[in-house]
Structures are given as C-alpha cells and as structure tokens.
C-alpha cells in the first residue's frame, strides 16, 4: 500500500457555483420549467409515500436536482421529476392514470416531455439497462426493448434521444436512492433473482438495514455513462460531469473493496489509539474509488486531526468536487446538503489552519 496521499480532483469553481443554489430547499420553486409542475405532483400525495431513504417527494426532487446540476434540457429534467408517476415495474406508486390522464399531463408539461415520461414508465427498465450495457444499441443509437406486462410482451424501438435520456435519468435515479438495502433486495440488478422468498431472506429485507453505501451500483452508473459515449448517443444530451465526463470507468471489484474499507473506518473497526490505520485505510478506499465524496471528506477530517492541513485542503476540495458533480449523497445516512455543508467547513478549516483541539468546539463550527 502506497504511503503517499491519493490524488484528489481539483474543485471546479463553475460546478460549485451551479451546486450552491441547489442547497436551498426552495430551489425547485425558482426553476421556471419545473416550478409549475410541482404543485400538481405534490397534490398527488408524493410527500406521504415511503421511498427508500426518504419519501417519494424526496426521491423525485433529488433526481431532478442531479439533472439540473448536469444541465439537462427541460424535457429530461421534467422526466426526472415525473419519472415514476404512471408507475413502473419497480414500484406500485401510480400518481397519474395512464389510461385517462395522459392528456392532462400533456397540457401541463407538453407532449414531448409527457411522451418521455410515459415511455420511461412503461418500458422494461431492467431490460433496458441490460441491453444498453451489453452494447446492443444499434449504429444509429436506437435500442429494442420490451414493454412491461405479462408475456408475450410487445417490443418497441427507442430512439437515440430516448436511449440517451433514459440512460442519464437512470444514472441520476440510481445515485439518489441506492444503498445497501437495495443491494440486498435487488441483488445483482439488473439480473435480479426474482424467486428469492422474503421469509427465507428476512434479515436482508429489514428496512433500512445498516445503511451502508452501495457496494456495486456506482460502477454500474459508470458503465451507463460510458454507454453514452456511443457515437450516435454522445451528442444527444450534455454529458454528466461524473467519471471525468463519463469517459472513465470504475470496476465492480474496486467499488466493493472501497466501500468495505470506508465502512470499516466509519464503524470504528480500525485501531483507535492513533490515526495511522484509519488514514491508510481511507486513502486506499479513495484510490480504488475516487468518484464519491464521502471517503475523501472523512479523510480530510483525519488529516485535520493529524495537523496535515495541506493534505486536508486537497482532500476536502476533492470531496466537494464529487458532491457537486453528483448532486446527491452516496452515504445515505446524511443528506447531500449536509455533506456539502460539513465539507465546506473542513475546507475552510484546512485553508485557515484552524481545527478545534477540544471535542465540544466541534459543535460550534460555522461557515464564514
């Protein structure tokens, strides 16, 4: 194991400036494209429905936030905000009846956006992911997939624009919601074993479980991003600013190892007498998976505790870069805005060379 600190990505100031307004809970109400739709969605009770690490409202807004940060066009951001309102193969949350309310949604968001929403809700999304990752997109970027429903299922050919939009929204959808509970109940997604019985696997089904970050889905998001580099897909939409503009990969093996290393430090499974073991463990986690912010953020705090201010500043800036690139947290124990706020405190402290020597003073830190 190398003794040198890992390389941390520099902070993109333009990306930071795009992210900061999204820390405000009211950001969506100021979005001219999304704000008119929000009251209609809220009126359907999305704030009362359970969804993974929060409510359905939290999920829809979180997906739309990433898409806004990624500078996606209006219809794709609307797809993010409405991506499950007709229901889909994964959830039974039907907020609009596709048989009777499509025209109402068309009047609200326009026919192109509603078409994307309806198609996204009715195609077999697991099959979409499987076929896209298998390289089955045609030379013109189109992709044949089945619709949901009992066999024999109807197939449709998605246009290149639909394929790109569904890939980008799937990336945002996955990072917003996925943590270890889904790793268990959707094991090996998209090739999930649907025969597993809840009574047999009761321990895996206990929500929310230990709340570990996912050990396998960030690498799948990276693969979806690389699929957007298909010659017929690359120019369809702005490329999300993750994984070096979707140009770099993360192997499943490295992701799993990095998550395990990070979690061992968070759960205090390292020697507690000094910082060396925990620091080396987190440094290796960052080397294996440099694409999420939380390991770099915790490492920055360890560097500050050791008086390594320059290293702490680089690690905090790297963490902030990843948080701003995603617009959602990887470690779901804390919300994205809270991770960002704490990381900015760490960066400020490292830059100023100040870090509390007393435990109680950690409770008083404020951004200046």
From TrEMBL:
Transmembrane segments: none annotated. InterPro entries: DUF6817, TPR-like_helical_dom_sf. Residues 42-125 form the DUF6817 domain. It holds the Pfam family DUF6817. PANTHER family: E3 UBIQUITIN-PROTEIN LIGASE (PTHR37391). This is DUF6817 domain-containing protein. It comes from Melaminivora alkalimesophila. The lineage of its organism: Bacteria, Pseudomonadati, Pseudomonadota, Betaproteobacteria, Burkholderiales.
């Amino acid at each position: 194991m190398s003794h040198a600190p890992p390389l941390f990505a520099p902070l993109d100031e333009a990306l930071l400036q795009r992210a900061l307004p999204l820390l405000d809970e009211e950001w969506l109400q100021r979005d001219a494209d999304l704000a008119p739709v929000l009251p209609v969605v809220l009126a359907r009770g999305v704030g009362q429905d359970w969804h993974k690490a929060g409510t359905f409202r939290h999920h829809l807004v979180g997906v739309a936030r990433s898409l806004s940060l990624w500078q996606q066009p209006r219809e794709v951001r609307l797809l993010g905000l409405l991506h499950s309102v007709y229901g889909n193969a994964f959830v039974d949350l039907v907020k609009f009846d596709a048989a009777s309310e499509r025209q109402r949604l068309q009047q609200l968001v326009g026919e192109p956006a509603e078409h994307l929403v309806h198609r996204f809700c009715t195609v077999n999304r697991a099959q979409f992911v499987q076929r896209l990752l298998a390289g089955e997109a045609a030379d013109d970027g189109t992709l044949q997939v089945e619709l949901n429903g009992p066999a024999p299922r109807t197939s449709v050919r998605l246009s290149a624009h639909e394929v790109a939009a569904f890939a980008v929204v799937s990336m945002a959808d996955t990072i917003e919601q996925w943590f270890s509970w889904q790793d268990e109940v959707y094991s090996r997604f998209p090739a999930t074993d649907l025969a597993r019985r809840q009574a047999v696997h009761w321990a895996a089904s206990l929500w929310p479980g230990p709340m570990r970050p996912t050990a396998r889905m960030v690498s799948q998001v990276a693969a979806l991003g690389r699929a957007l580099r298909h010659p017929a897909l690359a120019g369809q939409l702005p490329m999300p600013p993750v994984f070096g503009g979707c140009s770099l990969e993360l192997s499943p093996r490295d992701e799993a190892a990095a998550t395990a290393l990070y979690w061992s430090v968070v759960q205090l499974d390292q020697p507690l007498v000094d910082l060396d073991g925990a620091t080396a463990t987190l440094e290796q986690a960052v080397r294996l998976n440099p694409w999420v912010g939380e390991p770099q953020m915790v490492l920055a705090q360890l560097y500050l505790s050791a008086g390594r201010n320059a290293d702490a500043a680089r690690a905090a800036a790297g963490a902030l870069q990843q948080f701003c690139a995603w617009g959602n947290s990887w470690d779901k124990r804390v919300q994205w805005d809270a991770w960002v706020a704490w990381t900015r405190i760490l960066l400020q402290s490292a830059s100023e060379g100040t870090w509390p020597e007393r435990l109680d003073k950690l409770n008083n830190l404020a951004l200046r």
